[in-house]
Amino acid sequence: MNSEVEHFWVNADNSSETGVFTIERGEGKNLIVTILNNQQEEKVELRYLFREPIEKIDEEVLIAHRGTCYQPPFNDEGIYPANTIPAFESALRSGYEGFELDVRVTKDKRFILSHDEDLGVISRVKRTVKTMNLDEMRGITVTGSTTIPEMQVFSANALIAATLPSLEEVLDKFIDDPRVKTITVDIKPDPEEDILLAAEYDFKDMSEENQNKILFLTRTEKVAKGLKELAPHSFIALEGSKGTEVFDEPEKYLPEAVKLKRHSHNAISVNARLMLTIFDDYDQSVFEMGKLVEIAHKYNYKVVGWTVSDEDRMNKLREANIFSDYVLSDAPFYKWALQVMKYYRQVKQKNN
User: Fold this and answer.
1) C-alpha–C-alpha distance, residues 197 and 194, integer Å
2) 75, 257, 262, 337: least surrounded by Cβ within 10 Å?
3) Contact predicate 57/91, CB 8 Å
4) The pLDDT of residue 47
5) Residue 59: CB atoms within 10 Å
6) Which residues lie below 8 Å from residue 308, measured CB to CB, with a gap of 6+?
7) With pLDDT > 90 as the criterion, what percentage of the chain qualifies?
8) For residue 169, which of 110, 105, 126 has the smallest C-alpha distance?
9) Which domains does the chain have, with CATH numbers?
10) Nearest partner of 306 among 330, 326, 328, 289, judged by Cα
11) What is the mean pLDDT of the chain?
């Protein structure tokens, strides 16, 4: 717990009220949260009983999903297109500790940033990623966000356009940035051999320190194995989109739980948004999510929860003391910070 780390907050109802809060150790095993704003300073001492959840919430790595971008209906406050360098910079400046990006493989086996194979979704270029070489794609102007028809999410133009970046450009700009704890690379479906050829270019000579900042999201064990050989100090998560895959296919996601040999991945990516709504009963939804995190941690897997954006789901996780290792969020950072402040105050009330 580092008392020198300041977490910024702003009152959503009164933007002139801003401040920071810090966490430090008090006497014995107690913690002291110091809350400062432009009017007063408040110190809250937390007893040992509530130390563990407070530490866990502080240890979660909060990651901006595709950067801080214009991505309705999840975030209509961003001004940049998703998966662009200005969106990533905006996320880091606002307080996020990292960002997630989507990559696809070009014709010449390089990674370009795009959620969709069809470039017409995000730009005026009516071609697909796999039909173009990387050099042909440099300089393409991106204006739109992604399209996910099954979620009723359709591309919308951002207020400010940006240039389509390659993964190489993003890593060159951000991998050594001290603000960045994690860059999450979501590898979209492509032939496994092509994915590993593209990954070799960007990760083959990466230092151990920088590998520790990389969190891969992949859908197949073959790709996970190749990434582990290429970047053994990175985090590699098998991703599930339904939320319940860990229970449906434990032999794939948590092989040790069914007495099988561990695979190449060391993390699990869970659709927490669906997991918290998939069951009709609220208590069952929360219980299943908590059980999933508990089992994963038992076998030393990191848990990636995505995409937690609305206040209701944030509150569900906090009320049940459920903490992922990484949280992907579409929400502006200040909304998350205010939710954390609310949680701290609830802990204080329980402690009194």
Assistant:
1) 5
2) 262
3) no
4) 41
5) 10
6) 272, 273, 314, 317, 327, 328, 329, 331
7) 50
8) 110
9) 54-336 (3.20.20.190)
10) 328
11) 83
